[in-house]
Fold this sequence. Notes:
The structure holds 2 protein chains of 2 kinds.
Chain A: E1 4-7, E2 10-13, E3 19-25, E4 31-38, E5 42-51, E6 54-57, E7 64-66, E8 76-78, E9 87-94, H1 98-101, E10 104-105, E11 109-113
Chain B: E1 4-5, E2 10-14, E3 19-25, E4 30-38, E5 45-51, E6 56-59, E7 62-67, E8 72-77, E9 86-94, E10 101-103, E11 107-112
Parallel strand pairs in B: 2-11
Antiparallel strand pairs in B: 1-3, 3-8, 4-5, 4-9, 6-7, 7-8, 9-10, 9-11
Amino acid sequence: DAGITQSPRYKITETGRQVTLMCHQTWSHSYMFWYRQDLGHGLRLIYYSAAADITDKGEVPDGYVVSRSKTENFPLTLESATRSQTSVYFCASGGQGAKSLGYTFGSGTRLTVV
Amino acid sequence: DQQVKQNSPSLSVQEGRISILNCDYTNSMFDYFLWYKKYPAEGPTFLISISSIKDKNEDGRFTVFLNKSAKHLSLHIVPSQPGDSAVYFCAASEDFGNEKLTFGTGTRLTIIP
């Protein structure tokens, strides 16, 4: 199916565990992003990528790792999960001109760290 | 440092009336502004954008106005419909080509039938 998909949709993990959230898009968009949504903070950028093998930190990168070996995939890894990382995570993608055409978001992953 | 601010957490409007959502920003390097709509348990969906060289952009029932001198933009929805009930996020992108968006905290719009 064309589009942007995130998996899993829901995840519960324990403090200290490593967890990876997956993001896959079928449009070959250059740009991909990871945001987290928290009450009172809106959407905050964690990491972004302008192309395969090019990634950069966003506003709240601590405790997260990303990679982008293929254009279509942009996994987000929490190396050692903490309760403060309980959040809803959204992946987004966009091509050239996305500023005016809009970026497309996935449906989100709700992560609970216990 | 919140570069994009939505000072109204919530707004209620009668069906058929105009909804006006506001957004303020502090970074003069922003060159594009976007509005997203979000329903519960879904990802944000793009509504409309405006370039910093324009002061108005219209798409159907949605119009975005930009006042650069005041660093303020607003989204007008006319007429408001029950399906417009959602959280609306204002976002902005800097003129550096890195394409990343900075979001506001959102405004929950409720349309009263």
